[in-house]
Amino acid sequence: MNNQEIERVKAEMLLQPLNSAEELRDWMYNYLDIKFPSGVVYPTSTHGPVEAFWRIYELMKTGDSARVPQVCMLSSRDSFKTLGAAALEVLCMLHFRVSIAHGGAIQSQSDKAVSYVNSFFRKLKPYLESNGWTQSSDNKKMIEWITDTGQNIYLKIVIATVRGMNSE
After folding, report:
1. What CA–CA distance (Å, rounded) separates 167 from 126?
2. What is the pLDDT of residues 25-63, one digit of tens each?
3. Distance, first Cα to last Cα, the chain
4. What would the pLDDT profile of 136-162 be if each residue is shown by its tens digit?
5. What is the 3-state secondary structure (H, E, C) of the chain?
6. CA angle 128, 97, 31 (to 5 degrees)
């Protein structure tokens, strides 16, 4: 396959539902250029990042998120939780066509999330546009798209304060 054919296939596969943790890991690698680890990465852990992401994705895909409305992921400081959350939020926004609010605990974390999300959408923009999506807003705290069916969805980054989270 030449590069043009690869890009065409990537555009076709972008919005296809995923069926396993491995497919989720591969999607993030192929579209976001990040290879998150699978399996337990620390001896006392119960899951690795990919399995945790898959659990959330699967709950949304199956509709079981109504029965299990909360999932908690814990990890050490500086272990790329914000990066992982941003990647998963972008994936879920695209695959489930839902608007998402990302609550950063402090300004610097919120700024980092904005940086990650903007970087991801720069990479995804040509694929989304080839699928009939149109970007309707792109500012520091919110990226908004109109899907091929005319649905308006967004990913908004807010600081997790009473004021910041009030509207979301």
Report:
1. 31
2. 999 999 999 999 887 777 777 778 899 899 999 998 998
3. 44
4. 987 778 899 999 999 999 999 888 766
5. CCHHHHHHHHHHHCCCCCCCHHHHHHHHHHHHCCCCCCCCCCCCCCCCHHHHHHHHHHHHHHCHHHCCCCCCCCCCCCCCHHHHHHHHHHHHHHHHCCCEEEEECCHHHHHHHHHHHHHHHHHHHHHHHHCCCEEEEECCCEEEEECCCCCEEEEEEEECCHHHHHCC
6. 40
